[in-house]
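#onboarding

Welcome to the new folks! Below is a worked example of what a typical request in this channel looks like: someone posts a single protein sequence, and someone else replies with the predicted structure as tokens. Don't worry about understanding the tokens yet, we'll cover that in week two.

Example request:
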Amino acid sequence: MPFGEPLDLPATGSAGSAVTVRALDVRLPDAQRWARPLQHVLRGVSFEVPRGQVTALVGTNGAGKTTLLRTLSGALAPDSGMIDVLGAPLGGAEDALPAGVGIVPDVPFQPDHWTADDMVLAQRRVEPAYDAHLAGRLLRRAGIAPGAQLRRLSAGQRTRLLLAVALGIRPDLLMLDEPFARLDPLARADVLDELREHHAGGEDRTILLSTHDLGEIDRFVDHVVLLHEGRVVLEGGAIDLVEEHLVATTGAPSREGCAEVLRGARRSGDQFEALVRAEDAVGLDQLTDLRRPTLQDILTFTLREVSR
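Example response:
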């Protein structure tokens, strides 16, 4: 879906989707001044998370990624809209997150005196088939002792602990909020390996993770949802988005209407670099250089275009 065009989604979740969101609105109080009017954080958000794929929820800080994931996990109630998670509706007063969902939040919601062992034992009480051996193996790999308290762990270690506990569920849907943000390069590689191993363990296993920079995980991602100021401005399969676009480097466009196909144009000296749909490239000047974009290129040019 290019450049903020509205999504045409069914009113209920489709069989090929682990998550379906339609026309979602969320308003929250100002964290600094509660007397202010509610902030409209998510505005008409619609997208799908394909079953069995890795979907990246991308956006700059403040785009609404954390609010969206908290709403999808049931921690926040939407003001309006439809949410379907693994075939179950979510958002109503009586709705509950279905079984088979693992959550790795941005910060732990457990008391900071809890230990790693406390968290594993608590999860075992609510998940009869919980794989404590898997969680223990991942904690040992991360160098986290069973008696380690949350308050004594670094931010990166807390992420590794939350991930290990969530993976012990062997979830059909794993949702993670900025899992790489607080990790050093070695820990980031370990976490990416753990996510790959989990995803490969079942053809219907689905991962939804938020990030502000795809970076080295772009080859791990199958599907992308780009948020900007609480709205979805780009959504689609990663391979399709790359194949449907080109990066054009050209001088100042000389043909009438040529500039209209250049998206997110950036000037460097006497040259312009911009994103263009492959089908529109035939309308560009003959001296234009074209190259295949990276997924990060597409996100960067799109954000530049919608920010104008």
